[in-house]
Amino acid sequence: MVKVDLNCDLGESFGNFKVGNDEVVLQYVTSVNVACGFHAGDPIVMQKTVEMALDNNVAIGAHPGFPDLLGFGRRQMFITPAEAKAYVLYQVSALNGFVKAAGGTLQHVKPHGAFYNMAAKDYGLARGIAEGVHAVNPDLILMGLAGGELIRAGKEVGLQTASEVFGDRRYTSDGKLMDRSVEGSVIHDKQAAADQILDMVLHGKVRTLDGEEVHVEADSICVHGDNYEAVELVKEIRRSLTEKGVELKALR
Fold first, then answer.
1. What is the 3-state secondary structure (H, E, C) of the chain?
2. Domains and CATH numbers, the chain
3. Predicted confidence (pLDDT) per residue in 196-212, tens digit
4. 43, 48, 229, 238: least buried by Cβ within 10 Å?
């Protein structure tokens, strides 16, 4: 039987500002990536999200990003590998504290936004991230874009890795995510998202906007929590996969 993890980025509210519908999404996923305060989230939101995930028997991952609350972590920053390691060590350690205090165990780490996309292409940045994760706990799983440099760096530092694919994003011909500024780069139609996921999970391929087929490996599927269609997308993806006999299961 084919098995795959279904994850969502959550805990992205901040202070009085609410982002996403975390309580509902948690009912349909097997893992969550919790913001750690740099691009979104705050101590109260982090604590609440961790507790909700544990209540729903959902595996927890840290979602470290660039220190960019105003840009939601989606603006590029040019930092050294050493800085990347420190940013990851700081954020993952913080979330890990909340997870341990609530009686849980942190499963994985997945960088956010521009941090994630840049690390998919830049080996030096990816290596810094991987070393930061390893410094917190070498048993953590490092999640990154399928076929990207973060997966290579994680393996080279001795981490277990998980290749991630996206149901609500379009891909370029080199297997990377299309920039959000490009029209059509974000998928809002739940059937289109489900069809794309089925191709990736069952056939190991994804079709670009240009009609080209690109090979991908799918250990985990992501739906973005801030996508206003997140709940409907994740429900349809789950239904479609289950209908095809795919087992949804956390990475561990």
1. CCEEEEEEEECCCECCECCCCHHHHCCCCCEEEEECCCCCCCHHHHHHHHHHHHHCCCEEEEECCCCCCCCCCCCCCCCCHHHHHHHHHHHHHHHHHHHHHCCCCEEEECCCHHHHHHHCCCHHHHHHHHHHHHHHCCCCEEEEECCCHHHHHHHHCCCEEEEEEECCECECCCCCECCCCCCCCECCCHHHHHHHHHHHHHHCEEECCCCCEEECCCCEEEEECCCCCHHHHHHHHHHHHHHCCCEECCCC
2. 3-248 (3.20.20.370)
3. 999 999 999 999 878 88
4. 43
